[in-house]
Amino acid sequence: MHEVVRLRRLRISPAIRSMVRETDLRPSRFLYPVFVREGEGIREPLNSLPGVERVSVDVLVNDVAPRAEELGVAGLLVFGIPSVKDELGSTAYSREGIVQRAVRALRASGYRGVIATDVCLCQYTSHGHCGVVRNGKVVNDETLELLARTAVSHAEAGADVVAPSAMMDHQVAAIRRALDREGYTDTLIMSYSAKFASSLYGPFREAAGSAPAFGDRSTYQMDPANAREAVREVELDVAEGADIVMVKPALFYLDVIAEVRRRFNVPIAAYHVSGEYAMIRAAGRLGWLNDLQVELEALMAIRRAGADVIITYSALEVAELLRGGR
To answer: Given 248, 272, 281, 303, which residue is catalytic?
Structure first.
């Protein structure tokens, strides 16, 4: 009986393979992270993130955003690079902060993609931690108020989605209350629910200038050994009102994505982080592999594990590749 079953028949041509493909990968699944800094006409390449730049607001609006929209990328995830930092990260929630000005400029330009914003304090604090520091420790509840103020300021500027990444307990509830109180009931929360204390964030911290000045973030980001705890984090965020939950990193934590997909009927985002991206691109530069084809395979693996949204630095290049066919 088994002799009549030839699975190769399902692979015989590109059209057949496309017709029976189990997992789709489309640019409309991607969010493209952008690093926005002060100034004009600035395109500052990042050595550890090939193909990624820090850009000024005018370059974001006139070049990056239109290209992403033309390629069908779902939207942008905006990170700010402030010119001034202080102990409380006050420029994170200033109406004239760099993210707030970037979002207003994107709105004014007519950009039609999703505008998501990172909600954290690490880039804005002089100590580089994600919350308020008292006596050498990051304090949770005092940080919640500042995260909520930041999220409201982003929504006021026109963000569709706010993405709290500080890993403070009850940050989703605090932000949801603040948004609703100020009338931003339609603003989505995409929570960094299961954000691990990974060694893969180095290139991002260089790009964002967000490395901690002392210690590390293991007292608030998750232990990489804990998958069951990740499920608890997601469960709490869903109960507090998260519209989308996130697992970060993505490639090294596919098991966590798959388990969250199995247990929860909510949209899942996965962050294909800077270290994962940089390793692939570095191998490509050395001629060891075709880096864009590996990126394509990596993103497919993240989708196959169960992610609905993928945050990736390769969004534009892979979207171009997908448009040209495989």
So the answer is: 248
Give the residue carrying structure tokens 């239109």. Answer: 66
* Mean pLDDT for all residues in the chain: 93
- Above 80 in pLDDT, residue 324? no
Confirm whether 30 is domain-assigned.
Answer: yes
CATH of the domain at 191: 3.20.20.70
The structure tokens listed for 46 are: 């990042």
Cα 203 to the center of its chain, rounded Å:
14
Q: For residue range 67-79, list pLDDT tens digits in order.
A: 999 999 999 999 9
The answer to whether 137 is a known catalytic residue is no
C-alpha distances (whole Å) from 178 to each of 6, 89, 149, 187 are 58, 19, 8, 11
Q: Give me the amino acid identity at 125.
A: T
Is 13 a domain residue? no
Whether the per-residue pLDDT at 213 is higher than 70: the answer is no
The total number of structural domains in the chain stands at: 1
Q: Is residue 119 part of a domain?
A: yes
Name the one residue in this structure whose structure tokens are 């100034």: 39
Domain of 169?
23-324
Is 85 an annotated catalytic residue? no
CB 171 within 8 A of CB 128: no
pTM above 0.85, yes or no: yes
Q: 85, 127, 195, 303: which one is catalytic?
A: 195
Q: Which residues of 95-118 are buried (b: 16+ CB within 10 A; e: fewer)?
A: eebbbbbbbbbbeeeebebbbbbb
pLDDT of residue 129: 85
